[in-house]
């Protein structure tokens, strides 16, 4: 029996990709080179420090480890300045409705995100109350596809992993869910998320009764 739903944040609940791109673009501009949308494709699903290495490679810039830390912090400051202006109307279609449906039917909910800004984003979107547990980059050490974030979510909800369904938009996230022994609903392209039990374009295309069928 499904007892809990675990959600990734970016691409599932909200789309902050545009803010990441603008923040990286600003950082590149400060260093004297251009960062394009085409370049940005290389950063999808990549950690902040790995993304910075790609950015520096694109610009032909070499920095020390200490300088890289400072640049990563500066990028995050740019990003935070954007997300602090976010409003509830930026919630992706169907997300709030699906979370509400979970609550009404006694299904526990948790966020499972690598973002260290997850709490700030949820507060800006006024969604904090919809989650029984929030596991983010401030209390995890291993990146997806490692299952740590989802296993911690199940533990926080006090439910067995086998009773959880994960909602993910990235291939690494789907693999993390499978490694955790959980069912997974992919949000996005079936060709990229083929390992998921089910793939839909958004939470507006799915009902809780569809999840029960995954058992």
Automatic annotation (TrEMBL):
<feature type="binding site">
    <location>
        <position position="10"/>
    </location>
    <ligand>
        <name>Mg(2+)</name>
    </ligand>
</feature>
<dbReference type="InterPro" id="IPR023198">
    <property type="entry name" value="PGP-like_dom2"/>
</dbReference>
<dbReference type="InterPro" id="IPR036412">
    <property type="entry name" value="HAD-like_sf"/>
</dbReference>
<feature type="site" description="Important for catalytic activity and assists the phosphoryl transfer reaction to Asp8 by balancing charge and orienting the reacting groups">
    <location>
        <position position="113"/>
    </location>
</feature>
<keyword id="KW-0460">Magnesium</keyword>
<comment type="similarity">
    <text>Belongs to the HAD-like hydrolase superfamily. CbbY/CbbZ/Gph/YieH family.</text>
</comment>
<feature type="binding site">
    <location>
        <begin position="113"/>
        <end position="117"/>
    </location>
    <ligand>
        <name>substrate</name>
    </ligand>
</feature>
<dbReference type="GO" id="GO:0000287">
    <property type="term" value="F:magnesium ion binding"/>
</dbReference>
<feature type="binding site">
    <location>
        <position position="51"/>
    </location>
    <ligand>
        <name>substrate</name>
    </ligand>
</feature>
<feature type="site" description="Important for catalytic activity and assists the phosphoryl transfer reaction to Asp8 by balancing charge and orienting the reacting groups">
    <location>
        <position position="144"/>
    </location>
</feature>
<dbReference type="InterPro" id="IPR023214">
    <property type="entry name" value="HAD_sf"/>
</dbReference>
<dbReference type="GO" id="GO:0005975">
    <property type="term" value="P:carbohydrate metabolic process"/>
</dbReference>
<keyword id="KW-0597">Phosphoprotein</keyword>
<feature type="binding site">
    <location>
        <begin position="8"/>
        <end position="10"/>
    </location>
    <ligand>
        <name>substrate</name>
    </ligand>
</feature>
<feature type="binding site">
    <location>
        <position position="168"/>
    </location>
    <ligand>
        <name>Mg(2+)</name>
    </ligand>
</feature>
<feature type="binding site">
    <location>
        <begin position="43"/>
        <end position="48"/>
    </location>
    <ligand>
        <name>substrate</name>
    </ligand>
</feature>
<dbReference type="InterPro" id="IPR051600">
    <property type="entry name" value="Beta-PGM-like"/>
</dbReference>
<feature type="active site" description="Nucleophile">
    <location>
        <position position="8"/>
    </location>
</feature>
<dbReference type="InterPro" id="IPR010972">
    <property type="entry name" value="Beta-PGM"/>
</dbReference>
<feature type="binding site">
    <location>
        <position position="8"/>
    </location>
    <ligand>
        <name>Mg(2+)</name>
    </ligand>
</feature>
<keyword id="KW-0479">Metal-binding</keyword>
<feature type="active site" description="Proton donor/acceptor">
    <location>
        <position position="10"/>
    </location>
</feature>
<feature type="binding site">
    <location>
        <position position="75"/>
    </location>
    <ligand>
        <name>substrate</name>
    </ligand>
</feature>
<dbReference type="InterPro" id="IPR006439">
    <property type="entry name" value="HAD-SF_hydro_IA"/>
</dbReference>
<protein>
    <recommendedName>
        <fullName>Beta-phosphoglucomutase</fullName>
        <ecNumber>5.4.2.6</ecNumber>
    </recommendedName>
</protein>
<dbReference type="InterPro" id="IPR010976">
    <property type="entry name" value="B-phosphoglucomutase_hydrolase"/>
</dbReference>
<feature type="binding site">
    <location>
        <position position="24"/>
    </location>
    <ligand>
        <name>substrate</name>
    </ligand>
</feature>
<keyword id="KW-0119">Carbohydrate metabolism</keyword>
<dbReference type="GO" id="GO:0008801">
    <property type="term" value="F:beta-phosphoglucomutase activity"/>
</dbReference>
<feature type="binding site">
    <location>
        <position position="144"/>
    </location>
    <ligand>
        <name>substrate</name>
    </ligand>
</feature>
<keyword id="KW-0413">Isomerase</keyword>
<dbReference type="Pfam" id="PF00702">
    <property type="entry name" value="Hydrolase"/>
</dbReference>
<feature type="binding site">
    <location>
        <position position="169"/>
    </location>
    <ligand>
        <name>Mg(2+)</name>
    </ligand>
</feature>
